[in-house]
Write a structure and sequence with these properties.
The protein is mostly helical. It contains 4 helices and no strands. It has one domain. The longest helix has 20 residues.
């Protein structure tokens, strides 16, 4: 992907690189996008909605079942279904 930054943002990226905090432009942009995701209340709301949906789905799926993870791993390695 190619990104064209305006001069003021490019200066900010260059300043971050000069500070030694980041070793590449990609690292600066990665950190900036992560911060944007953390600061966006709409993203938090979407994650909360997904979590609530997953909880509701789990609760509606029935009673919990004990799982023997060693047997499960062996079945999967053997190419069998994870279900009995």
């Amino acid at each position: 992907m190619t990104v064209q930054l305006p001069p003021d943002l490019m200066k900010l990226v260059e300043a971050q690189l000069a500070s030694g905090r980041f070793s590449s432009t990609e690292e600066v942009l990665h950190a900036a996008l992560l911060q944007l995701g953390q600061d966006d209340p709409d993203l938090d709301r979407v994650d909360e909605e997904r979590l609530r949906e997953a909880i509701a789905e789990g609760e509606a799926s029935g009673e919990p079942v004990a799982v023997d993870f060693e047997k499960l791993r062996a079945r999967l390695k053997a190419g069998l279904s994870w279900r009995n």
